Give the backbone structure.
Amino acid sequence: MAAGRLLEFGLLIVNGMVIAFAIHIVIASLAVLTQELENTIWIYRDLMTLGRFPSDIYDSPMRAILTFIVPVAVMVSFPAKAYLGKLNNIWLAHALFMAMTSLALSLYFWRFATRRYTSVSS
């Protein structure tokens, strides 16, 4: 029982790092497109601050935003829920799907941004 929870916890920690990596790729892509980075980083930091607290304390619209739009809850809350045994397998599958989708979309956006890149110096 405890070994299964630890395995899920470890899997979701890696899953959260993949999602964080995907978000950083999107931020870098926005920087390539707009040559502006500071405001986007602050928005990301503020959303991560919201993720410090369990997603269950927020009302449903905010919880949906933190789970489906910007998957901060998937990165931060899901590993803890899995370790405590409060995350069912459907949400585990959803988290893995969210990581794969986030990474694929961020890489697509990176390719889009680098194709549209024009030199800053000229």
Remarks:
- The CA atoms of residues 19 and 83 lie 19 Å apart.
- Helices lie at 2-34, 38-50, 60-69, 72-84, 89-116.
